[in-house]
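> forwarded from #structure-qc
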């Protein structure tokens, strides 16, 4: 009697590998786009939560609270590297120590993905004891672009002079 041999032939394996390669070629770019969209939603919500936190702390402490981009132990200008929330006792919007009054850091948000970009044209956001934006510092749009400045998955928020933060329905690219 002949024993039936179990297994796949070389042709069957090559066809299976070819089909898998075609599916991966089609699917991977879609997965990257999906991942960037999820990352953009998560990070813009983190930024929005941190701004609301700063506003609430300003009201709770009865003092000015500011947010500025990370740059070592002081403020920088690249929001993509993360930011600090601090009780601002010194120069407005600057993490410093003036006239014996030292600013106190109350929250640090680490930098975002190295390939991502955060566009915001202000050097800081400051809230007074009533929870309102101090002067014009802070009003405007923050746009988060995952992967590149021209990402189609970018998300944004708008900060009003009253300190209200809301999501933008449509978002431009980070140019």
């Amino acid at each position: 009697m002949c024993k039936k041999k179990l297994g796949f032939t070389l042709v069957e394996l090559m066809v299976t590998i070819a089909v898998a390669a075609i599916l991966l070629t089609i699917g991977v770019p879609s997965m990257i786009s999906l991942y960037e969209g999820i990352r953009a939603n998560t990070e813009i919500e983190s930024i929005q939560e941190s701004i609301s936190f700063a506003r609430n702390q300003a009201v709770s402490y009865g003092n000015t609270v500011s947010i500025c981009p990370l740059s070592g132990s002081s403020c920088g200008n690249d929001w993509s590297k993360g930011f600090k929330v601090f009780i601002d006792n010194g120069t407005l919007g600057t993490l410093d120590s003036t006239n014996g009054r030292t600013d106190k850091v109350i929250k640090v948000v680490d930098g975002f993905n190295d390939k991502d970009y955060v566009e915001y044209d202000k050097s800081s956001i400051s809230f007074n004891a009533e929870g309102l934006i101090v002067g014009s510092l802070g009003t405007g749009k923050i746009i988060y672009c995952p992967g590149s400045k021209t990402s189609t998955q970018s998300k944004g928020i708008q900060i009003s002079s009253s300190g209200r933060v809301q999501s933008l329905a449509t978002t431009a690219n980070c140019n």
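QC bot note: Residues 6 and 117 are 54 Å apart (CA to CA). Residues 15-167 form a domain with the minor pseudopilin epsh fold fold (CATH 3.55.40.10).
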